[in-house]
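Recap quiz, item 2
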Amino acid sequence: MGTVQRSDEVLEALRAHAKRITAPKRAVIEVLVHAHDHLTADEVTKQVQALRPDVSPSTVYRILEELDDLDLVVHSHTGHGAAVYHLAGASHSHVTCEGCHTTFEVPSEIYDRLARELLATQGFELNRHHVALSGLCEHCRGSHS
Amino acid sequence: MGTVQRSDEVLEALRAHAKRITAPKRAVIEVLVHAHDHLTADEVTKQVQALRPDVSPSTVYRILEELDDLDLVVHSHTGHGAAVYHLAGASHSHVTCEGCHTTFEVPSEIYDRLARELLATQGFELNRHHVALSGLCEHCRGSHS
DNA sequence: GTCAGTGCAAACGGTTTGCATGTTT
DNA sequence: AAACATGCAAACCGTTTGCACTGAC
C-alpha cells in the first residue's frame, strides 16, 4: 500500500502506471492533498469545481476509482451516507459517529489483536480501511441517543 | 436489546408497544424466524411475496424499520450492496467477504478489547452491529485478490 | 369510527454507465 | 493518429416518501 502526501508523488505514481495526467486529475489530487478531513466524492467534486467549474461528478468518481485501484487513495464506508475518500497516507482506520455522522481516524493498531483473532479462528483476513466502525462519539454519547 | 427467536415473542413485543398486528407483519416475521442467513430487504420482500404476493417492498422496509426501532431485528451495513437484516437473537457481530460478498457471524466478544480501548482513548462507544467488518474469507483469500 | 398501516408510484441520494467529443501521448 | 479521458445525460440500486385507501383496533 502506498503512502503519499504530496501531489508530485501521486503524479509520479500515475506516470509509472502509464496513466495520463489531465487537468481534472491534477485538480482532484490537489484537493485531496490539501484536505484536512475525509471527503465524500461530492465534497471533492465541489472543491474541484471551485478551481475548474467544468469538471463533472462522474469524472471525479472515475478519478477517485483510478487512484483507489492504484492504492493512492483509500475510501471507507461509514454505515450512513456517502463513502469518504482520502490519500493513502499513514495507515489508519476510521470510526463514524451515528449521532453527528462525523468520521474520524483512529490508529489502525487497535485492530491488531482482533485481526489476529479473526485470522486464527475464521481464516478471515481483515481489511482495516474498507468500512468504518460505528458508534457514538464522546459528545453525542453525552447528549443522548 | 431483545433476544427473540420465535414469532410469538415478536408479536408479543409488538402488542406491548401498541403496534398493530397485520398480515404483512406476520409474513415478514415468519420469513425472519425461518431465515438461515442474513437477508437483504429485497430478499425478505421476495420471500414474503411468495406467501403474500401483494405485499409491497416499501411495506417491508417500513416493517423492518419498526422492528429495528424496537430492537427486535438488527441490520448491518456491509460496505457493499444492501444492508442485511436478521432477528435480534444472541448478540453477535458480522464480517463480510469483499470477494464473494458473503456476510457471516462472528462472536461479538472479538470486539471486547477494541471496544474498551476506543472508549478509554477516544471516548467512543462502539456499536458492534451497525457495520460489518470487511475483508477476505478463507476461500477467497486462497483464490486471488 | 378512528387511526395506524398499506400499496402504489414517484422521488431520493449515491454511484455507474453509454456514448459522442476532446485531449494526452 | 491512436488511445485514453472527459462531459453530459440517462440509468442504476437501495431506500424513503406522499398520498389516498384499507383494515386493525
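Residues 20-23, 40-42, 57-58, 61-62, 65, 81-83 of chain B lie near DNA strand D (CB under 10 Å from a C1').
Chain B is about 45% helix and 20% strand.
End of item.
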